[in-house]
Amino acid sequence: MSRTLGLLILNLVLVSFGFSSPSLGSRSILRSFNDDSGDPHDYAIELNATNFDAVLRETPATYAVVEFFAHWCPACRNYKPHYEKVARLFNGADAVHPGMILMTRVDCASKINTKLCDKFSVGHYPMLFWGPPSEFVGGGWEPKREKSDIVLIDDGRTADRLLNWINKQMGSSFGLDDEKFENEHLSSNVSDTAQIARAVYDVEEATATAFDIILEHKMIKSETRGSLIKFLQLLVAHHPSRRCRKGSADVLVNFDELFPSDIWLEPKQEENDGKNELGSFHICGKDVPRGYWMFCRGSKNDTRGFSCGLWVLLHSLSVRVDDGESQFAFKSICDFVHNFFICEECRQHFYDMCSSVSHPFNKTSDFALWLWSAHNKVNERLMKEEASLGTGDPKFPKMIWPPKQLCPSCFRSRNPKNYEVDWDRDEVFKFLTGYYGKTLVSLYKDKTILGKNGIDAALEDLVVSTNAVVVPVGAALAIAVASCAFGALACYWRSQQKSRKPRRNWS
């Protein structure tokens, strides 16, 4: 009984945001739910009455397919391989088209699911439904209902026919033989501002991946310890994801135990890098990293991804800090990249740009515009290198940002020969605060406001206004108490938090 309950809890955590777990590995976790059946290729997510609403409410997928079946039904057993062929395209860390469709199954032969199956008027097996995930939450389906966003899939008896049905609904051309990163469905339309909304998942992914890299390479030394503390403080106050703010606070409060200040002075303790202890602290939740990218996904396996997600995180932080924190944020980010970004050349270039700043930043706009300018300098350098070496992503070439399609008011004039632009910096700052602030979390808000306690959850999870700071009160107090052990750097941060008047944006 306890094992079953544990698997159900893991299942909920796993599938809510991408079907993988950093602690046990995406494949082993995904398959562990089917150990009893011995089938190592189950990609469809098993749901039941206890986790049905929660999983469908939290998934980032645009659409969901729910198959109602009975484990004793021979036709259902024969249909399962067909369903799994389609599910492997969309589910799991190795999904070919991640974040688009959540493929799920509900066993109506299990007594716990009797009422759930009745709500959807299940009259035969297997029975498949299609719709936005939120429409399944707390809902149902009736054959005589004229208008419903939940649609009965009436032609999905084989994998080919099911995928053809899906393609007609989405206007897509997915194929059963599609392989990862070898598809033509990636959107590279830079004028589509809705693209950035999906990046909130990539910001979480980049944050968790960065800390995985830090631990894997044992990068927390006596000389780097302080810079990591400062960056964690910045994340606690201004990360766009509530889960990452909370996880960062958990690590920060326990930092002295995880990484004692004198641990690196003892040669015999060099192997103790805190990784085992930190395994119980998940910087952005147990389900992150998920193993795939959404906004930052490249058309090739070795392009975009982590570096893109990290840049989005840094821009997001830059537009959220208050004026009085801008210099602290600048120094924290510069030190973090210098000490913990694993690419030597990139790290040195960024450090040189940080070192060239001669005056402290006194305003949020000054710091945000400096980071934007630094990113454009990086893009301009990489544009030339990638053009000469052919190493760029053909669907996502480096460009001067933002392009005119996204912000025409940002441009006063432009010289097409040398890429020089006469920018309206006030308009650029307005664009940055909107793009990396409110727009970044808009899809997250849409997903979260649904459901029984959705509005409260949305208010807790989001920083809707780019200058609003939402810090969990308990975490802030705990950090304030613990920060005395961190020295002057932490005390500075604590004083900033005390002087700021916390406020929530209820719009």
From TrEMBL:
Descriptive protein name: Sulfhydryl oxidase
The Thioredoxin domain, residue ranges: 22-171
One GO BP: protein folding
Flavoprotein recorded as keyword: yes
Domain ERV/ALR sulfhydryl oxidase: 299-401
Pfam families (UniProt xref): Evr1_Alr, Thioredoxin
Membrane-spanning residues: 469-493
GO MF term list: flavin-dependent sulfhydryl oxidase activity; protein disulfide isomerase activity
GO terms under cellular component: extracellular space; Golgi membrane
Annotated signal sequence range: 1-20
Catalytic activity: 2 R'C(R)SH + O2 = R'C(R)S-S(R)CR' + H2O2
Stored SUPFAM superfamilies: FAD-dependent thiol oxidase, Thioredoxin-like
Source taxon at top rank: Eukaryota
Keyword Membrane: yes
Cofactors: FAD
Keyword annotations: Disulfide bond, FAD, Flavoprotein, Glycoprotein, Membrane, Oxidoreductase, Signal, Transmembrane, Transmembrane helix
Catalytic activity, EC: 1.8.3.2
Enzyme class, first EC level, given as a word: oxidoreductase
